[in-house]
Design goal:
Bound molecules: adenosine-3'-5'-diphosphate
Helix content: 40-55%
Distance between the termini: 48 Å
Length: about 325
């Protein structure tokens, strides 16, 4: 096997060298693989995931673009699925970051091993990914496993990732990454796992065609009515809240436990790093959590430009922000 992996590594290096590349100052190089911009250092993991992952019917997969509410969704889904095992006083979220509880395929699981042992994990297995729908392994598409996608207004997601990369994730020796550069890469579709419109539409279309397979959520909707959305998620997962749970305030408890304020204040999320191929400060995943923070950062012409991209690429498919 070692020989095979060495051979794979060489083939992957050759593949990377043959792909179009996009370099950003202060940001890792990305290559255009299967029509999405994949950070070069993540590509070997993506390929291992595509080749080796075998989905099971009960699997639950959370999908998103970076900075769209992934951490929040992980906390919520973990709480819904495990609500009969753990209460608010003993939830593992008090001692683990949501990214430890629901790992990403392409960063954590296939990061250090080509074939991690996932068969022994308790069911339902919970996983996450930023990879676009068309590039998911066939076994995910063919099996009865469920996918929950969270989407966020690209204006806010863009500003959020700029903060994340500039202020929190950048190492001292890297040059600064300006909002203008970020805006340009984003608008050209060259930001990680994008073009953002393609990534959203892949899951959006699948959610319309196979609503039992893909549940499409919006960050803004969760902000507006968390209770209704938690009910929707629980029903989609085949784990609807009982009348007793509803009357007993279980949904509100989960919402409160997973709120930005609560998670931000838990000791485990205040310090330390989480290895997602690159190491990120745990606290960098919790910032403002507001809808419309873009007004504080983007110029009117930046807003017009991104809005016109959305108008052209996303709106015709019935997806609005
Ligand atoms: P802001 O930078 O706009 O504050 P991701 O989890 O996909 O990396 O997304 C991070 C964004 O979600 C950040 O947005 C972060 O503050 C926000 N966020 C993290 N946890 C949250 C929670 N529990 N509720 C609402 N928003 C949350």
């Amino acid at each position: 096997i070692a020989g095979t992996e060495e051979h794979d590594r060489k083939a992957i290096d050759e593949l990377i060298a043959s792909l179009p590349q996009s370099k950003g100052q202060g940001f890792p190089c990305r290559c255009l693989y299967q029509n999405f911009w994949c950070p070069v250092f993540v590509l070997p993991n993506v390929i291992a995931f595509q080749r080796h992952f075998e989905a099971k019917h009960k699997d639950i997969i959370l999908a998103s673009q970076p900075k769209s509410g992934t951490t929040w969704l992980k906390a919520l889904v973990f709480s819904i699925v495990n609500r009969s095992r753990f209460g608010i006083s003993n939830t593992p979220m008090l001692t683990c970051n949501p990214h430890d509880l629901i790992p990403f395929f392409e960063f954590q699981l296939y990061g250090s091993k080509m074939r991690p042992d996932l068969d022994s994990l308790a069911e339902p297995r919970l996983f996450a990914t930023h990879i676009p729908y068309p590039s998911l392994p066939e076994s995910i598409k063919q099996s009865k496993c469920r996918i929950i996608y969270i989407c966020r207004n690209p204006l806010d997601a863009m500003v959020s990732s700029w903060h994340f990369l500039l202020k929190k994730a950048r190492s001292e020796d890297q040059p600064e990454w300006s909002l203008e550069e970020q805006f340009e890469a984003y608008g050209q579709g060259k930001f990680s796992y994008g073009p953002f419109w393609e990534q959203m539409l892949g899951y959006w279309k699948e959610s319309l065609e196979r609503p039992h397979k893909v549940l499409f959520l919006k960050y803004e909707d969760l902000m507006e009515d968390i209770v209704e959305n938690l009910k929707k998620v629980a029903e989609f997962l085949g784990l609807p809240f009982t009348k007793e749970e509803e009357e007993g305030g279980v949904i509100e408890e989960i919402a409160k436990m997973c709120s930005l304020k609560t998670l931000k204040d838990i000791e485990v999320n205040k310090s330390g790093k989480i290895p997602l191929v690159i190491e990120f400060e745990k606290r960098s995943f919790f910032r403002k959590g507001e809808v419309g923070d873009w007004v504080n950062h983007l110029t009117p012409s930046m807003v017009d430009h991104l809005n016109s991209i959305m108008q052209e690429k996303i709106s015709p498919f019935g997806l609005q922000f």
